Amino acid sequence: MEKKKFWVPVITGVAGLLIGVGLTLIVIHLYRENYAIVEPACPPTLTKQQADSYRNKYLSTAKPFTAIIKGFNVNAQEMNAWNCLLKNNSQLGSFRAYKGMDEKGDSLLIVVGVNTAGKDDTTLYYRAVPLNGGPCPPICDKN
User: Fold this and answer.
1) Mean pLDDT throughout 100-105?
2) Domain count across the chain
C-alpha cells in the first residue's frame, strides 16, 4: 500500500511538468512572430573605387586634429555595418571606419573589415552615416 502512495505524487508531478512544458511550447510557437528580433538591413555597399574616391575627397579638405583622443562614439549604423561585415567574413579580426565625403560634399564613413594580419579586407565596404559618431573630443559627454 505504501508504494502506491509514493508513486501517485511522482506521476502527478511528472505529468504536470510535461503539460506545463507542452503549453509553454505551444504559446511560444503561437506568439514567436510577434516577438521576433528583426535585424536591421545592412547599409549600402561601396566599391573599392568609390571608397577610395570618397576618402581622397575628404582628405583633400580635412583639417588636422591635434586634440588628445579620449574615446570614440560609434553610432548604430556603423555598428550594423560591422555586424554585416562579420556575417560575410567570420575571420575578420577588427574593423576600420574611414572618413569620407560623397559627390555632394556630405560626410560619410567607409566601414571595412580588417583581417588578423592587420590589413584592410578590401572585398566589401559599407557606407555609414557619421551621425553622432566619431572621436571624443569633440563627440563627448560632458562627464
Assistant:
1) 90
2) 2
